Amino acid sequence: MQLNLHQTHHEIGDFEVIFKDLTEILQRPEAQGLHVFPELFLTGYPLQDLVLQKNFYLEYLNLIDDLNIWAKKQYKSANENLSLIGGLRYTLDDAQNLLKVENVIYALQPGTELKVVAVKQLLPNYDLYEEKKYFSVAADSAVIEFQGKKIGLLICEDMWASHLHENDPVLQLSKKGPLDLCVNLSASPYHLQKFDDRLKRAFEVANFLKSPLAYVNRVGFEDEILFDGQSFVVDGKSLLAKADSFKKDYLQVALPKFQAHEAAIGYTKPVSWITQFTTRLTNDKKTLKNLSEQECFEVLEGLKFSLQEYAKKTHSSKFIVALSGGMDSALVLAIAKLSLQKNQNLEAVFMPGFFSSSTSYDLAHDLCRNLGVKLTTFPIKFIHSTIRNNYRDNFQVEMTGLTDENIQSRLRGALIYARSNETGALVINTSNKSELAVGYSTLYGDSVGALSLLGDLYKTEVFTLARFINSKYPGMIPEEIITRPPSAELRDNQKDEDSLLPYPELDALLENLLSYQTSFKELVNLGYKPLDIEKIAGLWQRSEYKRKQFCPIVKIKPKSFGFGYRNPILKKNVHV
Amino acid sequence: MQLNLHQTHHEIGDFEVIFKDLTEILQRPEAQGLHVFPELFLTGYPLQDLVLQKNFYLEYLNLIDDLNIWAKKQYKSANENLSLIGGLRYTLDDAQNLLKVENVIYALQPGTELKVVAVKQLLPNYDLYEEKKYFSVAADSAVIEFQGKKIGLLICEDMWASHLHENDPVLQLSKKGPLDLCVNLSASPYHLQKFDDRLKRAFEVANFLKSPLAYVNRVGFEDEILFDGQSFVVDGKSLLAKADSFKKDYLQVALPKFQAHEAAIGYTKPVSWITQFTTRLTNDKKTLKNLSEQECFEVLEGLKFSLQEYAKKTHSSKFIVALSGGMDSALVLAIAKLSLQKNQNLEAVFMPGFFSSSTSYDLAHDLCRNLGVKLTTFPIKFIHSTIRNNYRDNFQVEMTGLTDENIQSRLRGALIYARSNETGALVINTSNKSELAVGYSTLYGDSVGALSLLGDLYKTEVFTLARFINSKYPGMIPEEIITRPPSAELRDNQKDEDSLLPYPELDALLENLLSYQTSFKELVNLGYKPLDIEKIAGLWQRSEYKRKQFCPIVKIKPKSFGFGYRNPILKKNVHV
Q1: Phi, psi of A523 (to 5 degrees)
Q2: Across the interface, which of B130, B274, B568 has its CB nearest the CB of A52?
Q3: What is residue A189's DSSP assignment?
Q4: A residues 268-327 near B, CB within 8 Å?
Q5: How far is CA B280 from CA A60, A227, A279, B197, B457, in A?
Q6: Residues 134-193, chain A: which have Cβ within 8 Å of B?
Q7: What's the pLDDT tens digit per position in A46-61?
Q8: B58·A521 Cβ contact <8 A
Q9: What distance in Å separates the CA atoms of residue B544 and residue B561, rounded to the nearest whole number?
């Protein structure tokens, strides 16, 4: 029996294209054997409230009707084949109002209609997942037969039972007699080294069930979630095939026989979702683990892909970045340039103010020359002066201190968006995770943008990624951008580390706080200074209001800011 | 037996004050009988990820320890009394890491420790509620005995079983023999007419159980959720007592005997959460129901309260509003003024541009005179000109069209925040729900602010509320502000209704779309023009990116924008 794994890449709700692609794939002459498509292939994922929108589900139900008509009348095949396709099953009342929705696997064969053969049992409902909000569950897992082979069916989370789940679908499958194959239809979000996690779990499940396992994942970028694909097949002992990352792909593999792993492989259960957030800390919790070469490669691919996805889905072909002469904006511009496709346009704007150094200008200029990106220099001194004068005249007070700092940042935000209004370019945000965590960015100022590429990377990781890019593309980012001390240049002689901590120390402290798992007491015992903890934790706790108004962040870590990070703005802050 | 209902008002995580207030209440000489406190009284609600934060729960567990010590050693009473107190029960491992959390009722009596007597069974997990993410559930409901009386225990959602819940706690209670009382400890968010819903349900539950029911709700404003209090007692036939709204309050009532309601009262089950969102439409779905006098009163109280709560919890005592001479900002200023307390300060800024009419100036001036609010007029023409000139010089192109419109709005956003930086005043946002729905506001421009007071009120409701205020405070808002055609005044002769629909029609169409329950086909059948539907639905679907970066909105409807509204930015839009 042939296994055909279809690692697909579709926009949410793009029903016409989904119909076209599915019917075309199944009519290919080589189509025979078992075809497996990702979880919710027929709709896309995650849908959030779209699940509930009558317009959305009526259009989806038209797709189901069209597929049924096609399958009964036009879908013919000389070979026996079976497709397993992720989709939704709706139960409606007489007025077509919603009673129930399930996340299911449809079986499709030539000449028949779509038929539900499995319903998702474990609904992830932690961090940014909220499937219990929308979907009803099944009580038992399903096995089907095809060409005399018994195939166990799992949908994504079904293979990741934790103690939070009363029933383990894998355990249920194990009680249904020997399987010839287990398939998992997934829409599994990417984070660093996620493939390793999936593979490890796949070996556990395959050896527990004594069955090969085929894992099919979707590809895409949805607001902040990356789907990396990387579908694969294991026989229990070896990885037999693996699809590409961040690309539509297709694997064809003959059904393998189960091979026991050489090592004794247990079948573990993760304890709870909070402890699943593996931190990026070294064992002593005092240093952030550096991004490895492989991780840098993955992150770069993911960031380029997400930017292109955002542009494609918003019908944009232009990008704009506000350069400061510093590290973050330089890295963002380099990533955007590396992602650039034919007929796309990227431009940079450098907006020096009273406190910008000439070095910043030189470095912004050098960077754009290296990248072949058009740079416009737009000095803001004159406007800044006019604002200062008008402010003094109208409010009878001088703009000073933070007021004078923030107005520069907000003026730049307004100007970059003016250019965006004129050209239709997407403004790419340049904030990093360290800044976001302590609120060291100006709301409506340098925090503006359609999409944040670096919002899940600490400052020290930003440097690592920049060095990685320079190792692949020598001299792309001027070395001095990487080595000069970070500064917002909003007042004289401003240096980030004067008001914060040295970045390596800051980033480790933040990762401890953001994992939720390290208490202040433990931090003190680890050697962090109480005053530093108090200061940084205070900044973190008091800056929720800024993060609430921040743009979507490309998620590349188990625990990120964004939709899955939920902390009240209004609360009594906890003190050391 | 005396019933003591404590309608409390505390900040999330304000453990010191919670300890002080609880111990003080229980030591009052009149304290005797049954004391009931709200759901999660000991922590506040909703906690979101705070539940998971080690710092948070270790501090909370200190509170529990302190209360136990106090109750055993210091809590003495001549009278027999029992307190039922909402809190969390944590189960930790040896390293104090989180294994399990439950939303519980603690019983407390003089000389004893806190003891869990009930665990919440129904965890709301729809719209902005996500308790299944954090809490474990109990399998059965609990009854306790006190002074020979049997008391059934419910926590908030426990009395609102829908078909989504397999087990109905009220049904379970009904099987445990006759009750003398049923208590519900709630943290129940406010929306229009929510008290009527609660009362109706309370009569259903009381008559089903043949028991009086005491309902205790908390008071507060948490980011966007209002808790209105309005605790009450019913005997089955009548409302015996009702506490104040949006205020800490206390009810003391002798335990009543159950009285059957005069009407035959069924025990209904809501069908699903989506259909619980009662729309604000008339039966023909073509007109928005107008806010009644009582609703206007409630909304005004709620908005004033939320603004004061936000200020108190962020330690602000100053407010600032950008006036345009139009309806929205005038209403916001009036509400802020009506909420103002001693030692607080409110100021307004009018920032006329090239296209602002002199009428706008006159009206802004009249409004501030009426309200006794200091008005600063800050013309932006000069800065706008400088920006235009600099933009032309640097980009070799004139600022025109949308670019020139948006820069004015963003400049105003930057200036109001400059003033806020200088004085520490909270910027109150002035957008309404109609604008938010179609994206008719400028990101980082007129959409800025710490808190949106009107973001859950359609434009037609904004007018209704303004007229209500004028009926209570004659002449407060100049009549012409209410009668002049709405305009953003960002270009010559701009009128909102030229680019949209007349507001009454627009608002009804939006409510149909935002309830998710009306399909395009149904809208056409109702008589809406396909081109209008296409246009408005398109604007709505394409403006998700703006709403994602919007500030918190005070929630006053069953379905609001904000945390409970979740639609992907990146998706294929559904067409008519």
Answers
A1: -60, -40
A2: B274
A3: B
A4: 271-272, 274-275, 309-310, 313-314
A5: 28, 39, 47, 15, 11
A6: none
A7: 999 999 999 999 999 9
A8: yes
A9: 10
Please state, in angstroms and rounded to a whole number, the distance separating the CA atoms of residues B87 and B63: 11
Chain A nearest-CA distance from B383, in A, is 6
pLDDT digits (tens, 9 = 90+) for A500-542: 899 999 999 999 999 888 999 999 999 999 999 999 999 999 9
Rounded Cα distance, B97 and B90, in Å:
10
**Is the overall model pTM greater than 0.90, yes or no?**
yes
Instruction: Please tell me the distance from the alpha carbon of residue B199 to that of residue B373, in angstroms, as a whole number.
Output: 40
Kindly state whether B260 is in contact with chain A, defined as any CB-CB distance less than 8 angstroms: no
Q: Which of A125, A221, A450 sits opposite B132 (nearest CB)?
A: A125
Set of chain A residues whose Cβ sits within 8 Å of the Cβ of B353:
none
Separation CA A251–CA A36 (nearest Å): 10
B402 contacts in chain A (CB < 8 Å): 421
- Give yes or no for a contact between B12 and B50, defined as CB atoms under 8 angstroms apart: yes
Q: Is B368 part of the annotated catalytic residue set?
A: no
**Neighbour-count burial of A94, counting CB atoms closer than 10 A to its CB (0-12 exposed, 13-18 middle, 19+ buried):** exposed
Q: For residues A181 and A256, what is the distance between their CA atoms, to the nearest angstrom?
A: 8
Provide the pLDDT for residue A483.
Answer: 94
**CA distance linking residue A566 with residue B220, whole number of Å:** 19
| Average pLDDT rounded to a whole number, residues B349-355 | 96
Which among A97, A223, A568 is the nearest to B50, CB-wise? A568
Nearest CA to A130 out of B47, B139, B167, B131 is that of B131
Interface list for B 56-95 with A (CB within 8 A) = 56, 58-59
Only one residue has tokens 């957030």, namely A277
AA letter at B5: L
Identity of the residue numbered B200? K
Mean pLDDT of B517-537: 94
The band of B494, judged by pLDDT with boundaries at 50, 70 and 90, is confident
Q: How far apart are CA A368 and CA A349, in angstroms?
A: 10
- Residue A209: the pLDDT is 95
Q: Helix A358-371 to helix A327-339 angle, to the nearest 10 degrees?
A: 10
Lowest mean per-residue pLDDT among A67-76, B160-169, B249-258: B160-169
Using alpha carbons, select from B148, B270, B338, B411 the residue that is nearest to residue A444.
B411
pLDDT for res A163: 47
The yes/no answer to whether this complex scores an ipTM above 0.85 is yes
Tell me which of A201-210, A258-267, A423-432, B382-391 is least confident: A258-267
Per residue in A464-499, pLDDT tens? 999 999 999 999 999 999 999 888 888 888 787 778
- Do residue B407 and residue A418 have CB atoms under 8 angstroms apart? yes
For the ranges A123-132, A223-232, B522-531, the one whose mean pLDDT is highest? A223-232
Name the residue among A125, A567, A568 with its Cβ closest to that of B133. Answer: A125
Does any CB of chain A come closer than 8 Å to the CB of residue B574? Answer: yes
Q: Tell me if chain A has a CB within 8 Å of the CB of B549.
A: yes
Burial class (CB in 10 A: 0-12, 13-18, 19+), A28: exposed
Between the alpha carbon of residue B117 and those of residues A71, A94, B142, B174, the distances in Å are 58, 43, 7, 18
Find the angle CA(A102)-CA(A107)-CA(A113) to the nearest 5 degrees.
95
Return d(Cα B546, Cα A247) in angstroms, integer. 29
Helices B503-514 and B530-542 pack at an angle, to 10 degrees, of 60
